[in-house]
Queue: 2 jobs
Job 1
Amino acid sequence: MTGGTARTAGWLAPVLGLVVAVVALRWAALAFDRTDLFVDEAQYWLWGQHFDWGYFSKPPMIGWLIGAVTGLAGSDAPFWVRMPAAALHGVTAVLLAALSVRYFGTRAALWTAAAYLSLPLVAVGSFLISTDTVMMPFFAAALLAHARLCEGGRNADAVLAGALAGLGFLAKYAALYFPLGVVLAALLFPAARIPLRQAALMAAAFLVAAAPNLVWNAANGLATLTHTAGNIGWVQPGAKAALPGLAGLARFLADQAGVAGPVVFVALLAALVRLRRHGPLAAFALVPLAAVAVQSVLDQANANWTATAYLSGTPLALAVLAGWPRLRALGLALNAALCLALVGLTLAPETRFGRDAPVLARYLGRAALSHELLALSQAQGGVPIHARDRDVLADLFYTGRDSGIAIYAARPAGAPLHHYEQRYPLPEGIAGPVLAVLPAAPPCPVLAPPVPVGRGPGAYAGRGLSAWLVEGDCLAQTR
């Protein structure tokens, strides 16, 4: 770790210049983005209409952020829903540059910022708003505060590190990797062993910041925590008998090469193999990578579950690549090319590259289906719309936000399966006709011939959805 003086000399201005340029270019591209909001993005938007300390499947900060930005902008357009993402990653890049200076010197700052901004994970996360993106700057800032603390910092640094990680927890529970990283770093590196009083202050600050969501969960049947645990299939009753094993691990490694770019990922692995040489940052990268690697052997593991690894991992990888300048340039050039390709796809999302369906099919056709259903409802005098599919419901609430048409999910048979069953179930005893969006006829008298919907290219192609006009009281009794 380098000394603590003159750390901003020469690096901050070029890093800020790079970050501002990249964020501005990504905003410009986002203004012409032709993809629909994904199901999660539309759901986050809905959460932002009603501020709370927690929601069905995630902590609250993403809802707060989207609600605040769209409120200030006076617009709920997709651009404003997604706009914070590129800026948050820009802030994170600056924080990681500062972190790299503390560990590897001023020359590492610009390379670290450029590498982080070019990660495929960050490129995608700059065009789609996600909980990872909202968590990242808090986690990065907590790493920086921890680095200061390890250099003999004050009690205030311990409180700051814990509070920042706790705020990250309000964005995504993966922020728990921070305290785990602190513990592992202390076990492996004497320089990361902070006084017990400061460790207690850090833990207390984390719990105070996270407490509102923990209290909300306790008051709401542990809804979010239960849903998060449910994503880890092997910890739930009825887990799959056949484990993915080595095939799952191989898929995990391939996914990570895609998330970080192959050169950066291999460089990070090289840093972790020689873990003792690279200091406490290695512990913070190792914890999520090891945890998700184990998960990949036991059950499904999503590629983005390791996102926090690339906060400490990017400076580590660039420290390794500093001895291989041509390979470093190749890695960043490859990632930059992938970033540009992503921009091209968002501008022309119908691109197929010889496939039967568009490459970005999952981001197309969602608003079109909602418009079809809203028009059918209005043709029947504005009857309520009912759907069981969370994807359909998410965009209906978003696209139909100003329609005045009531939208309902299924009545849950037991615990709700998603936010819409929890908050917007079909009222018991509802009278009059309802437009039901289903792949097959409901067990109710049909009041009009069904209308096929969602048949265009995109997310619903091949789903066989139709709109059925049925009596609401009968529909409310079905499960």
Job 2
Amino acid sequence: MKKPKNNDLLVFLVFFVVVFFYWYLVSMGEEHETKFNFDIVLKHLPSDVIVTEVPTEKLTLVVRDKGERILSYRTRRTFRQLAVDCRNYRAVNGHVIITGPALEELMEGILSSSAQIQSVVPDTIQYYVAPAVGRRLPVRLTGSVSADASHVIGSQRLTPDSITVHAPHNILDTMTCVRTEPVSLVGLKDSVTAEVALVHPQRGILYEPETARLSVQVTPFVEKSFELPIEGWLLPREGVVVKTFPSKASVRFQVSLEQFYDITPEQFMLAVDYTELGADDGGKARLQLIKKPDDIRSITISPAEVDYVIEINETP
């Protein structure tokens, strides 16, 4: 009973193979419409220029051709790359555009004579070039960086602080620096390090490197105080002396931990402003901090007022 079934299966397979090859031969002779995706490859770039912006999009080609040609395209390894000979195209201000008849001619160079191009997307190939020798420009931070109320920004640094810029001369000659994308780091409590992108004011600009690293050191405020002598300020003439009781006062302030040991009493001047004193020879006077370091805050003077007397020493 098995033998007749085996014979039937064999006959079926023979007829199936014959029909398949017949269909294949007919199909190869007919025209088919097929879509192919291409990677764009730039070749033969002059040695004195570099590509600053490559074609990023894949090119999609819809072509109509005989089946045997379609099969040939699919089996050809190099068919999926579209080679652009840079020597054949002229850059205008560093910009190269291949479109219209030039693009069709480029596509026809990889197709058979019987092929019919139905569509090419995108309909333009463009790339940018610039002189191989770039210019070094400084990097400038854009945005805001601040600490919270109990901390202070000790230092902030961009690394690198300058980069090499490649761009056509008409662009590069207008650039004085490279700016970062806007940064917003506010209310910081701890030191941070972040990668920041760089702004390209126009297309066709290449940075080496393309990003910078921002390092921000954050330190807490600590309290410090000095006992300072009280001086007279804006005295009208020599021999006029303002004596205060007490003769010293305490100045308390906040400073970053990083600068704690750099602040000295010599950086301060605590005084009574003579022009604010009354007509009498004595009374109460308000203390003022005439001189102080720039990086301190939350200043308290104790006492805020002192008693004073004015002495005039006549010179014989």
